């Protein structure tokens, strides 16, 4: 779903979606695998203010995918917490933040590994989408990595 009608459509279809996670019965069209469950704890994963609002309205925990919209992170969390309506399973708001991370034993190795991501993001910004390439050593080390920040 894309476009300005997306929130309205999603909000209207939510009851049908959430019924899929209700406790199963013999008459249910859904069969949970690997076997019957009493309940399924549903989270709402999103990267927008609308998803934060919907999770709050439904009394659901909220996972924010900050790699899609890092500038909305704090605003989405504040909105979610302010609008949260307690539910039976979740009496208080609960937030998890997904962040991109590249870790290595040393800063130099992390910079080396991150070169793939830096190149891909720069390509996306320039309209040149490509597959993720293998990391490459950068002449000048940290100075070149710092120069890459200008393109962010």
Spans of at least 5 consecutive residues whose pLDDT stays below 50 are 142-152
Gyration radius (Cα, Å) is: 21 Å
Instruction: Round the mean pLDDT to the nearest integer and report it.
Output: 79
Largest sheet: 3 strands, parallel
Structural category is mainly alpha
Helix count equals 5
| Spatial strand arrangement across the major sheet | 1-2-3
Let me know the number of strands: 3
**Roughly what fraction of the amino acids lie in strands?**
5-15%
Shape: elongated
Order of helices and strands: HEHEHEHH
Report the end-to-end length measured between terminal Cα atoms.
28 Å
Helix % is 40-55%
Structure commentary:
With 152 residues, the protein is mainly alpha-helical. The chain contains five helices and three strands, in the order H-E-H-E-H-E-H-H. A three-stranded parallel sheet has the order 1-2-3, with helices on one face. The longest helix has 19 residues, at 107-125. The protein is elongated, with a radius of gyration of 21 Å.
Keywords:
40% helix; single chain; 152 residues; mainly alpha; 5 helices; elongated
Topology of this structure?
Layout: H1 6-19, E1 44-46, H2 49-58, E2 62-65, H3 73-83, E3 95-98, H4 107-125, H5 142-148
Helix pairs in contact: 2-3
Give the gist of this structure.
This protein is mainly alpha-helical and 152 residues long. Helix content is 40%, strand content 7%. A three-stranded parallel beta sheet has the order 1-2-3, with helices on one face.
